[in-house]
């Protein structure tokens, strides 16, 4: 269990931060950037949830996703080095991917079909969900880059989860836009 008695430790004053397993990394390290961007996504979902109260089903899904994103942050902050550790590291698992896929399908079933790309906006909830979606895409890009770096491992389940997350947030934005009826559609070349 996590216990935080003291918020500042001064250990990061030199520009480093500690991973769960103990090693220190620079605060601009790719792994730190990846889990920091996951945290940023989580915060943006929290802002979006301020506007999703009329959609209790979606709000409950977003709440579960926020918890999953802490799991994902813990997964990324605990590098798999292949060495034995004294505890079972928290990892994203396939059942979390399966659940978010099922929730995408559930929300998408209620939407009007798309006839064009959607411009971010419509309602406040949709606009915030689109911002969270774009930041989750950045988190995904960083995680993929990290997974390709020498000596770094990112699990396939974690990569699948973050990929599905942006899909979920896109569908959720359409869902709160009156099932897609209030979506603002892109009109190619409209302002030429």
Question: Can you tag this structure with a few keywords?
Answer:
elongated, two-stranded antiparallel ribbon, mainly alpha, 5 helices, two-stranded antiparallel sheet, 192 residues
3D architecture notes:
The chain is mostly helical. Helices cover 53% and strands 5% of the residues. It is built from 5 helices and 4 strands, in the order E-E-H-H-H-E-H-H-E. A two-stranded antiparallel sheet has the order 1-2. A two-stranded antiparallel ribbon has the order 3-4. A hairpin with a 5-residue loop joins strand 1 and strand 2. Helix 4 packs antiparallel against helix 5. The termini are far apart. 33% of the residues are buried. The model has no long low-confidence stretch (mean pLDDT 92).
In a few lines, what is going on in this structure?
The chain has 192 residues and is mainly alpha-helical. It contains five helices and four strands; from the N terminus they run E-E-H-H-H-E-H-H-E.
Q: Estimate the strand proportion.
A: 5-15%
Question: What's the pLDDT, averaged over the residues?
Answer: 92
Read across the widest sheet, the strand sequence of neighbours is 1-2
Number of strands: 4
The SSE order reads EEHHHEHHE
Structural class, from helix and strand content? mainly alpha
- Treating each run of at least 4 consecutive H or I residues as one helix, how many helices? 5
Protein topology:
Blueprint: E1 16-18, E2 24-26, H1 30-49, H2 56-76, H3 94-108, E3 118-119, H4 124-148, H5 156-176, E4 184-185
Antiparallel strand pairs: 1-2, 3-4
Helix pairs in contact: 1-2, 1-4, 2-3, 3-5, 4-5
């Amino acid at each position: 269990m996590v216990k935080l008695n003291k918020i500042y430790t001064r250990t990061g004053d030199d520009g480093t931060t500690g991973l769960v397993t103990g090693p220190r990394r620079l605060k601009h390290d790719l792994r730190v950037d990846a889990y920091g961007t996951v945290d940023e996504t989580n915060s943006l979902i929290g802002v979006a949830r301020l506007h999703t109260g009329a959609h209790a089903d979606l709000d409950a899904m977003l709440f579960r996703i926020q918890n999953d994103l802490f799991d994902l942050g813990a997964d990324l902050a605990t590098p798999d080095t292949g060495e034995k550790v004294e505890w079972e590291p928290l990892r994203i698992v396939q059942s979390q991917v399966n659940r978010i896929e099922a929730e995408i399908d559930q929300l998408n079933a209620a939407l009007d079909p798309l006839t064009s790309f959607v411009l971010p906006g419509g309602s406040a909830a949709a606009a915030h969900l689109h911002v969270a979606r774009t930041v989750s895409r950045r988190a995904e890009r960083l995680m993929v880059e990290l997974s390709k770096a020498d000596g770094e491992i990112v699990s396939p389940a974690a990569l699948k989860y973050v990929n599905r997350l942006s899909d979920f947030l896109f569908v959720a934005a359409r869902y709160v836009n009156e099932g897609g009826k209030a979506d603002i559609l892109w009109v190619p070349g409209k302002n030429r």
